[in-house]
Amino acid sequence: MIELNNVTKIFNKGQANEVKVIEGLSLTVKPQDYVVIVGANGSGKSTLLNLVAGSIKPTDGDVALDGQNVTRLADYERSRWIARVFQNPLSGTAPDLSILDNFRLAALRTKSKGFNIGTTAAFKQQVSDKVATLGMELEHKLEQPMGTLSGGQRQALTLLMSVMDDCRILLLDEPTAALDPRSANLVMEAANKLINDFKLTAILITHNLKDAHTYGNRLIQMGEGRILQDFATVNKLNLTQNKIFEWFS
Questions:
Q1: Mean pLDDT, rounded, of the chain
Q2: Of 124, 109, 87, which Cα lies nearest the Cα of 163?
Q3: Non-local CB neighbours of 193 within 8 Å, separated by 6+ positions
Q4: What pairs with residue 2 in β-bridges?
Q5: In this model, does residue 236 exceed pLDDT 60?
Q6: Whether the predicted model's global pTM rises above the 0.90 cut
Q7: Does the pLDDT value for residue 7 go beyond 80?
Q8: Is 7 exposed, middle or buried, given 0-12, 13-18 or 19+ CB atoms closer than 10 A?
Q9: Does the pLDDT at position 31 exceed 70?
Q10: Which residue segments constitute the domains of the chain, with CATH numbers given?
């Protein structure tokens, strides 16, 4: 469960360029909820995700994960709960390393210092089996450098790597924004499958009208650092795409 309790975030507080991005926001995301967040640029969507991830700290209010107050924990300290995929496919992978070595790094992400996972035959088979689920035939190219792959391929692999360590929360920050329509659809279908298969709690930020209408069991509209509207599955399905489109402007 994710809980934000009366959270406010002010950048450059007390200075001439002070900006209040989130104001008095409270939000509860139940286990296995798949929340889609939309809103115009500057509405606070990415800041909200950063607050959940621990990349930034709130100016006021508290953040809790599974009942534990994590407000002052850094993002790396929250990594046992949280995995995150960014909009830039280059952000989640090491381009000069092979697919297999990238997966090895992902498997070590939350392990204690000194704990090693070798690229053994068993580990390679495990990675191959996971990659095969994408249907992209990349399981036959595990020694290929990650940087030689397309953006869509890298983003799909980043999704797989994000759940290597049994995380419970997946944060998707416009994961298809830099992709062509075909690759974007592939990545979203892969994300949806992983969320269902691993029973993850997920938050997706998107500017894609179709994705906002198609995915998730809850749709939230943000504006000026607040939650303006919050729809569960039944009410969300009654919204027209034209109505959702209005929320982006």
A1: 86
A2: 109
A3: 133
A4: 29, 65
A5: yes
A6: no
A7: yes
A8: buried
A9: yes
A10: 2-94+161-246 (3.40.50.300)
Q: What is the pLDDT of residues 156-186, one digit of tens each?
A: 898 888 887 678 999 999 999 888 888 888 8
Task: Give residue 224's identity as a one-letter amino acid code.
Answer: E
Q: How far apart are CA 181 and CA 186, in angstroms?
A: 9
Task: For tokens 């298969």, name the residue.
Answer: 197
Strands of 60-65's sheet in order across: 19-29, 2-11, 60-65, 68-69
Side-chain half-sphere exposure of 245, counting CA atoms within 13 A: 4
Q: Would you state the structure tokens that stand for residue 92, as one six-digit string?
A: 């989640």
Answer with the residue of higher pLDDT: 116 or 98: 98
d(CA 114, CA 116): 6
For 183-226, what is each residue's pLDDT tens digit?
A: 888 889 989 988 998 899 999 999 888 888 889 999 999 999 99
Following DSSP, what letter does each residue of 95-137 receive, concatenated?
TTSBHHHHHHHHHTTTSPTT------HHHHHHHHHHHHTTTSS
| DSSP state string for 167-198 | -SEEEEESTTTTS-HHHHHHHHHHHHHHHHHT
